[in-house]
Write a structure and sequence with these properties.
alpha/beta, Rossmann fold, UDP-galactose 4-epimerase, domain 1, 2 domains, seven-stranded parallel β-sheet, four-stranded mixed β-sheet, 10 helices, 13 strands, about 40% helix, about 20% strand
């Protein structure tokens, strides 16, 4: 079934991969983005409607929803740096909470009742067990995770009040690249592109934040999920909101972990980058960043059982290799 889907933040890293997958699946897509961190070149050549707008402007969102005649929203826009969120919590509450409430209110006004939200494994904080399941306790240890959890909870209440069908996709660590979509953040904070910058000769060394975590090698462990796999999950999720086949309870809202189920330490990922690139990638170890949990690894079984989603990229070397191919072709990002 073809839907008319408005994607907020659709010019960003994950957002542009989601848009690419939606278009390939035959959906009509409008991208709503202020391009504060996204890249219009990431959407070049795709059949879509591009709307330059800001989620701080509720009336602009409602106008976009009505003019495009959207029947579903995928909400990918927001600030994403956990470390920064600890230094500037106000920015994260404005961008991630207040602006998301503007979006939900605009959806109510425009009569759009299907909502897919890009959430985060950051809502779990320091997990009570590994791998993490969706019904495990949520206790964010940084402002970023707290703001994601706030919107999950708000959307569930909106569902009870207004009949929304909502799905929350809790990403673990997005990574890798497609032929057209790669990581081009400024500043860049993600492990793999930072390590690859060293291999490209754009940086002298890679910084390891913390070597005293309670893990086998002392560095933090994360579950890496390829951006193309994340994109496929959004297509499956927005389809599921049409039938409520993936929802339960009076709020018509359900959460899904998106990860591979396997964790890799920072040292292990750097070693994968060395294997793939053939470069030494010197490292320097410094203090931990505030708000970084020791281990985050998903149990993705619910997404498999309910949405029919499984990651195609489970091998860390394959994920790194896809990113390395993109970064060699785009050493200066989308402008190169």
């Amino acid at each position: 079934m073809s839907d008319r889907i408005l994607v907020t933040g659709g010019a960003g890293y994950v957002g542009s991969a989601v848009v690419e997958a939606l278009v390939a699946a035959g959906h009509r897509v409008a991208v709503f983005d202020n391009f504060s961190s996204g890249h219009q070149l990431a959407l070049a050549g795709l059949d879509l409607e591009l709307i330059r707008g800001d989620l701080a402007d509720r009336s602009a969102i409602e106008h976009a929803l009505r003019e495009f005649r959207a029947n579903a929203v995928i909400h990918v826009a927001g600030s994403i740096q956990a470390g920064e969120s600890m230094k500037d919590p106000g920015k994260y509450y404005r961008n991630n909470v207040i602006n998301s409430i503007n979006l939900l209110d605009a959806m109510v006004a425009a009569g759009v009742g299907r909502f897919v939200f890009s959430s985060s494994a950051g809502i779990y904080g320091n997990p009570v067990r590994i791998p993490i399941e969706e019904d495990d306790p949520v206790a964010p240890v940084n402002t970023y995770g707290e703001t994601k959890l706030a919107i999950e909870r708000a959307a569930a209440w909106y569902g009870q009040a207004h009949g929304f069908s909502s799905i929350f996709l809790r990403y673990f660590n997005a990574a890798g690249a497609t032929e057209r979509v790669g990581e081009n953040h400024e500043p860049e904070t993600h492990l793999i592109p930072l390590a690859l910058r060293v291999a490209l000769g754009r940086s002298e060394r890679f910084l390891i934040f913390g070597n005293d975590y309670p893990t086998p090698d002392g560095t933090a462990i994360r579950d890496y999920v390829h951006v193309a796999d994340l994109a496929r999950a959004h297509v499956l999720a927005v389809d599921a909101t049409a039938t409520n086949s993936s929802t339960s309870g009076s709020a018509s809202a359900r959460a899904f972990n998106l990860g591979s189920g396997t964790g890799f330490s920072v040292r292990e990922v750097v070693e994968a980058c060395r294997r793939v690139t053939g470069h030494a990638i010197p490292t320097v170890e410094i203090a931990r960043r505030p708000g970084d949990p020791a281990v985050l690894v998903a149990n993705p079984r619910r997404a498999s059982d309910v949405l029919g989603w499984k990651p195609h990229f489970a091998d860390i070397d394959a994920i790194v290799a896809s990113a390395w191919t993109w970064h060699r072709l785009h050493p200066d990002g989308y402008g190169s």
